[in-house]
Write a structure and sequence with these properties.
457 residues; alpha+beta; two-stranded antiparallel sheet; 8 strands; 8% strand
Length: 457
């Protein structure tokens, strides 16, 4: 045994004590998140760390040499990973100029009744879409009893939530009070944000409403073919969290249930806010699931809530794509927030491609951004995506579940998020570690235990 510790020994003990604490906390987090693979890996690292920790207390010929080497390696690696180095010259911001016709999205196309006037007119103008849409119509369908993941409890609970949203949508058009209150844009912006957060949103922001935020034409049942005539000047975007454990089982029924719950939650918050703005004498309209005049992720990006990722979803700072969005448009004067342009997220999506690799429907491109009608962007293949939905019966969410940004909002994952933003080298290291700890193509988790008790009865 070594009779006394010199300065090198003490430095060695401090470093490996810190590593022991960090890996122990990581193990605890993994256990709480029910990440079995990650828990085993961190347990193995703790065991190895413990063996290395004993080196200063032993006495053998090359003891100090080993300590110098290990300390040097750790310090060099730490400097390389933590040094704030980014090279963004080749990273382009998303650009949007073109409006989208809601009639072209799969939700609208699949609702068309065969041989109806809208059906005939649409496929007359877009004959190339008829064959693939008819093939999709042969599948069981979203929420269908014949679909792959059907369960009467989760599916009917989800459908009930969607029915409530439909009932709520009947009351979206509201008259503003005849008495218009004179309110400071700065004060009302702060008040509305405070109210939204107290109602259960995790984030919110304001933006001036742009043309590319709005659909060109409506495409759903109640207003199909009508030109979008939205004259509001401002928009408020809000996000609500989707439960990590419910989403982790995607594409099983729990993700459909959670999706419907959070669409309803975000919709009720937006509805309440719009009604409050009406009471102040200003026009306002809530845009909720199935009743949109705007493209929510684009509004949310410009409201400073996140970046658009490879999968086409909003990537929020603390929850990644694991959110649902609602929007309120209004003529109430507001203070716009700074639009989000987070090149570290775009860079990470450039190198990650985990969603593309894992997507069951092979709907997400692993290629670089391309120009679509002049707009630089990634775009999923919506036909392949929706086709898989109609087979599995849920809105899938596998891409959301495995995204490295979707890990829970806690101390360990937030350290990684800070590192990803800080350094392009750290981003590449973090991706390799995420693949190592959680798997490049992780299997879906079991549905939550409480939910399983009902599902297995």
């Amino acid at each position: 045994m070594n009779e006394g510790l010199d300065i090198v020994d003490i430095v060695f003990v401090i470093i490996f004590s810190f590593l022991f604490i960090f890996t122990s906390v990581s193990l605890l987090v993994s256990v709480l998140e029910k990440e079995i693979r990650a828990s085993k890996i961190f347990l193995s690292i703790i065991f190895l760390n413990t063996l290395l920790f004993l080196i200063p207390f032993l006495d053998f010929p090359i003891q100090n040499t080993i300590e110098y080497i290990l300390i040097g390696i750790l310090l060099i690696c730490s400097i390389i990973l933590l040094f704030p180095y980014n090279y963004y010259k080749q990273i382009k911001n998303f650009s949007f100029n073109n409006k989208i016709d809601e009639r072209d999205i799969m939700f609208s196309r699949i609702e068309l009744k065969t041989n109806s006037e809208n059906f005939v007119n649409y496929y007359r103008d877009k004959p190339e879409k008829l064959k693939i849409d008819n093939e999709i119509r042969k599948n069981p369908g979203l929420c269908s009893p014949n679909s792959k993941y059907y369960n009467p409890i989760t599916f009917n609970l989800a459908e009930n939530n969607f029915r409530i949203i439909e009932d709520l949508a009947k009351h979206l058009q509201m008259q503003a009070s005849e008495v218009k209150q004179e309110i400071s844009p700065d004060k009302i912006s702060k008040l509305l944000k405070d109210k939204i957060l107290k109602l259960g949103a995790i984030d919110c922001g304001n933006t001036e409403l742009k043309d590319y935020h709005k659909y060109s034409f409506h495409g759903r049942k109640h207003n199909y073919g009508e030109k979008v005539n939205l004259t509001h000047k401002y928009a408020i975007a809000l996000t609500v969290e989707m439960n990590h454990e419910m989403v982790a089982a995607a594409p099983a029924g729990s993700t459909l249930l959670e999706s419907s719950r959070q669409y309803l939650r975000s919709g009720t918050i937006a509805f309440e806010l719009a009604k409050f703005i009406n009471s102040l004498g200003y026009d306002a309209l809530a845009h909720i699931d199935g009743n949109y005049s705007v493209i929510c992720p684009l509004v949310a990006k410009d409201a400073g809530l996140g970046e658009i990722g490879r999968m086409g979803l909003l990537m929020t700072p603390k929850l990644g794509p694991r959110v649902r969005i609602a929007v309120i448009t209004t003529d109430l004067p507001l203070i716009p927030d700074t639009p989000c342009y987070e090149p570290s997220v775009i860079d990470f999506c450039n190198i990650c491609k985990k969603c593309a690799y894992t997507c069951p429907g092979k709907a997400i491109s692993s290629n670089d951004m391309i120009k679509i009608k002049g707009d630089l962007r990634w775009q999923i293949n919506q036909e392949k995506c929706y086709n898989y939905w109609t087979v599995c019966g849920t809105d899938c969410g596998r891409c959301m579940a495995i995204c490295p940004f979707s890990h829970p909002d806690n101390f360990i994952h937030n350290i990684v998020r800070k590192g990803i933003k800080n350094s392009m080298i750290f981003r590449r290291f973090a991706l390799k570690m995420d693949d190592f700890i959680y798997g490049r193509k992780p299997n879906p988790k079991r549905e939550p235990d409480k939910l399983n008790k009902y599902l297995n009865k």
